[in-house]
Amino acid sequence: MKKSTFLIAGKHAVAEALKNPKRKVLKIFLTEDSKKNLNKDNQDLNLLKNIKLFYKTKKELDRLCSKEQLSHQGLIAEIEHLENTSVKDYLLLAENKKNLTFVALEEVTDPRNIGSIIRSATSFNIDGLIVKERSFPSESKLLYKSASGCLEHINIFEVSNINTTLKYLKTKNFWICGFDKNGSKDFTKHDWNGNNVLLFGSE
């Protein structure tokens, strides 16, 4: 079965997709200058080997991103989705791992906000992001641009129901930790030993 494809834009998003052995990159639309910069920044990796390249002007690339009005930085890639892993399957694979931490998003739908959360999550070595499959903008150029390549480095669990997933994780000895701007407890002083889910609510 042929997988659906979509476009992503931005030097970090495209470069990290090219570095990810699990990600299939079908085509790259780029300027001559962006190719030189990509090769310069990744001299030993030969990222563009066996990739179909289509040279475009900046204006031509602008048109491919006209709907989102984002800065493509001279690089746009056509990619396939990664294989989805379920939370249950991941827990089976990680059964010997201690102190698992997931981030769950409830009614957070803005691609820029999700991308920023993904960047922060990867910097803190979060094990996975739990999102509602119907509201997750999985093919958004804005999401990939905002995440700055970090989508290639975190597990994304798309689920049909967040609450059902959280109830299941409770049975697996996970603590569910909600965030509230008016909360009285400093999360940096919380004991994060054990398995935890950090739940972020609506924007």
The first-level CATH class of the largest domain is given as Alpha Beta
What shape does the CA trace take? elongated
Distance between the termini: 37 Å
Instruction: Let me know the number of strands.
Output: 9
Would you write up a description of this structure?
- The model has no long low-confidence stretch (mean pLDDT about 90).
- Helix 5 (about 110-125) runs parallel beside helix 6 (about 140-145).
- The strands form two sheets. The chain has a five-stranded parallel beta sheet, with helices on one face. The chain has a four-stranded mixed beta sheet with strand order 1-4-2-3, sandwiched between helices.
- It is built from seven helices and nine strands.
- It is elongated and about 50 Å long.
- With about 200 residues, it is an alpha/beta fold.
- It starts with a strand and ends with a strand.
- The protein folds into two domains: about 5-80, 60s Ribosomal Protein L30, Chain: A (2-Layer Sandwich); about 85-200, SPOUT methyltransferase, trefoil knot domain (Alpha/beta knot, 3-Layer(aba) Sandwich), CATH 3.40.1280.
